[in-house]
Write a structure and sequence with these properties.
The chain contains no helices and eight strands. By secondary structure, it is mostly beta strands.
Length: about 90
């Protein structure tokens, strides 16, 4: 099965949360921060959203930073993805 986002939606594969601090302290799952770094897995076609033309600036494979608590988390075939609007993506990472 595959996910095909609509309009200005983007499907992200979020990186795993850090389990250790830099000093070596192991964090419980409750203490781990939600990661903001992700890889773009699928991109919608853009189009007219809220009466305005939306051009898609990200492409599959881009590494991005997304808003911390944006989007909808979904699980498909045992993998977790987050679906966000393109406007919830803050930057690309090179």
């Amino acid at each position: 099965m595959s996910i095909k986002p609509l309009l200005d939606r983007v499907v992200l594969k979020v990186e795993e949360a850090e389990e250790k601090t830099k000093s070596g302290i192991i964090l419980s799952s409750a203490a781990q921060e939600k990661p903001q770094f992700a890889t773009v897995v699928a991109v919608g076609p853009g189009g007219i959203v809220d009466g305005k033309e939306v051009e898609m600036y990200v492409k599959v494979g881009d590494k991005v930073i997304a808003s911390k608590y944006a989007g909808t988390e979904v699980k498909l075939d045992g993998e977790e993805f987050t679906i966000v609007r393109q406007s919830d993506i803050l930057a690309t990472v090179e």
